[in-house]
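Listing S7. Sequence submitted for prediction.
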Amino acid sequence: MKNPFIYSIDNKRYQTWNYYLKQKFGQKVCKIPVSGNFTCPNRDGTKSFDGCVFCSGLSHGEIIENNNLPISQQLNIGRSIFSKKWPNSLFLPYFSYNSSTYGKLSKIKPLFEEALNYKNAVGLCVATRADCLNDDICDYLGELNNKTNLYIEIGLQTIHDKTANLLNRQHSYQEFLNGYNKLISKNIKVCIHIINSLPGETKQMMLETAKAISNLNPFAIKIHMLYVAKGTTLEKWYKSNQFSLMSREEYIDTVCDQIEILSPEIVIERLTGDCVKESLIAPMWSLKKVTILNDIDKELVRRNSFQGCKLK
């Protein structure tokens, strides 16, 4: 069946991060995760010491080794790994650990500048929270955006404040919008993270979150499956049967529904979450990431649908 989606160079029926990068840079671009040893207002006591219930203190399930090394050395280690498969690739340093705009500008600026000056770096990716975007930081990010390819990733997870309160997010949807709009006012490209299968959420609530994001029309979105990691509050809840997780089939069905209502101009950077095997409690099926992505592709073909086909 012919692929009807226009933003594709392969069989994908949604606009992938890989498609965007190849269209923009004309070659392979790799994101190298680094750590600036940032903390989070939800962990340092500013708002809470407990963090979000799903957070183990690692970023997106990734373990960043050697995170006490200078940024350039962390990038060297990452480049040596990626260059084995893509020897001529370009790089995007990715501050993915905790809230990477949280702290004094005098600390943040040298770290970002060091990353930007790295050989073959074509920009910068920064993960943070919407409540970690004060005016000084946003002014600096605006300056960076005028001279390089800047991508800011914000964890929203859900538009539903009832769920956010349960998760101990310590900020509301309106506070998210306030931070998001600060960045948009400076024409900064923003990627929004959401999580499916959060405790207490129905499929309809997950679709409402996707629809709200489509209306915001950000640069990109990351869709994650909730996973239970060791050492989290969520692990205690799961083991005491306080909530259940979506099945693999339910997740694929929901993601396809979300893709259909997302604006086709939004880059979809991710369609499932990652957790290192040693830390994962559940769902174990989430470890088979490639097969999940393949089955999402197959379901879209079966439906003969694609990103934005049901957008009203």
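Caption to Listing S7: primary sequence and predicted structure tokens for the chain studied. The first strand starts at residue 29 and ends at 34. Residues 59-63 have pLDDT under 50 and may be disordered.
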